[in-house]
Amino acid sequence: MRPLEFLTTNELQEIIIEDLKKIKERENLEKELNFTDVVLGSEDGCYIFADSQGYHYIVSERGQKIVNKVTDDLFDIKFWAIYPIVVTISYDFSEEKSQDNDPRLVVFPKQLALLKEIDHNLFKRGEIEQNEIFKNQSNSMKNDLYLIVGIGFTNLSDF
């Protein structure tokens, strides 16, 4: 069996940055990511790189790896890199827009809208992630969120 061939870290960086440029609301999103191997004592942040084992996604905090994922799937590494940035943008947006007690009523639709700007498959994966969150909510919160994010959600441009 032939070993998998992976993109280089530079090629991976180009692809992810090209996707991030599709988010029009904020510039220089690539500064949120470090496209290099994390070394002990590195600055806090998200590190993405490729090597012979696959694509690595590492979050470092206080010099420790708190998230350490490896995949051979380009889609997975793109989602892992982009989704936390989308979440941050959506919470920033909710602080400006939300009059509601629960910011998720603004945040969740905004996340899906941003993911849809980038790629339909990222949007679908975002829906799956949100559905996992909904499973742990009270029934009344589920109903509110499903109405906004789910079946009746028709106008992403409002977010």
Summarize the structure in words.
This protein has 159 residues and is α+β, with helices and mostly antiparallel strands. It has one domain (9-158). 48% of the residues lie in helices and 16% in strands. The chain is built from five helices and four strands. A four-stranded mixed β-sheet has the order 1-2-3-4. A hairpin with a 2-residue loop joins strand 3 and strand 4. InterPro entries: Imm63 (IPR028952). This is Immunity protein 63 domain-containing protein. Residues 53-131 form the Immunity protein domain. Pfam families: Imm63 (PF15599).
Low-confidence stretches: 149-159
From the helix content, strand content and strand pairing, which structural class follows? Answer: alpha+beta
- The count of helical stretches stands at 5
Q: Tell me, what's the shape?
A: globular
Number of domains: 1
How do the strands of the widest beta sheet line up side by side? 1-2-3-4
Short key terms for the protein model shown above:
single chain; 159 residues; alpha+beta; 4-stranded mixed β-sheet; 4 strands; globular; disordered C terminus
Q: Could you give a short description of this structure?
A:
The chain has 159 residues and is of the alpha+beta class. It contains five helices and four strands, in the order H-E-E-E-E-H-H-H-H.
